[in-house]
Amino acid sequence: MRGIPYVPTSEELWNGVVGVYFSLQSRSPSVEPGVDRLRRLELRRVREARKYLFDALSGVAMGMPFLDSLHPFYRELIELMIDRATYKHSLAKVGHATKAVASIYRDAVMAIRSATTNMDIIKARRNFLARVKDLVTDLKPELDFLKAAAVKLEGLPDIDPGLFTIVVAGMPNVGKSSFVRCVSSGKPKVAEYPFTTRELHVGHFTVLNDVKIQVIDTPGLLDRPLSERNRIELQAILALRHLASVIVFIIDPTHHSGYPLGEQVDLLREVRSSFNSPTIVLINKIDIASDTEVSAALDNVKLIDNSLPIFRVSTINCGGCRDVIDHIVDNHVIPRIKEALRQRSKL
Q1: Cis previous bond, 29, omega within 30
Q2: Topology of domain 10-154, CATH
Q3: I need a surface site. Which of 12, 237, 304, 306 has the fewest CB within 10 A?
Q4: CA quadruple 315, 319, 325, 331: dihedral sign
Q5: Which pLDDT tens digit goes with each residue over 84-121?
Q6: Within 10 Å of residue 59's Cβ, how many Cβ atoms?
Q7: What's this model's pTM, rounded to 2 decimal places?
Q8: pLDDT-based confidence at residue 226 (cuts at 50, 70, 90)
């Protein structure tokens, strides 16, 4: 996810305040009396320290994502990673701290301006710095939590929920990552071992000259109730529910994926019954599958829904993948564009 601000620790904030404060020195030479010269210096120091601290805190409070304003995909995905209540509390406390900074600054200005001796000014300085240190120390748990959250948010895939999105689903090792590699600029790592695709992989390609399409490879979906799924599997559920303009479901009719055809078909049935997106089925690995294996896969898919579009492909060499994209463009992308233009013409 882009645009995540840097979150300092409370120690970094305090060191920054001290650094800003004592980097300012009196301008020389000066004809001002000593107390007036010190007063002017301390007013500059508290002003610049306040600005540094206010900017740092407000940058965190306003720069971190507001969960309620996010697209449902990002909102629910983030809530899998961090505690929602703690996140909102931490942002609120950091935001409210900016008001405390303003109050501490006003009190310091008043004390410095009313001071009649150098010692009074130094006392005001010490009081200002002590209150600032107490403030940032009190924010330590919240800043630590937000710093850890920021690292997790930065690791989220860069997904645009507004784009036409193809979500690729199916059991592990059926060829999902290879399909993404074939049809888009995305180059996810492909491994032969089960459960190797550990996050969403996103690619893009352009059709009709300037229409950008997003294609997402999901983690392996296993045929278990949602309550039994782990976090990786839930990521795929979120993608299917909130992002999919079209679902491309890939089946391996051979034994190479390690999952029997019956389990794969059961998963297809679950996807069909749980989500409303149009579904396209790919029978993959036709370069090594026997006619009997392909026919069995076709028959099982037709038992679920005889109207499902089915394509035979070989993602290892991208055979048939272009036909899949052409079908999606003709039957889903172009109709969406026409509908958008029709709606726009009504305005």
Answers
A1: yes
A2: Four Helix Bundle (Hemerythrin (Met), subunit A) (1.20.120)
A3: 306
A4: negative
A5: 999 999 999 999 999 999 999 999 999 999 999 999 99
A6: 15
A7: 0.77
A8: low
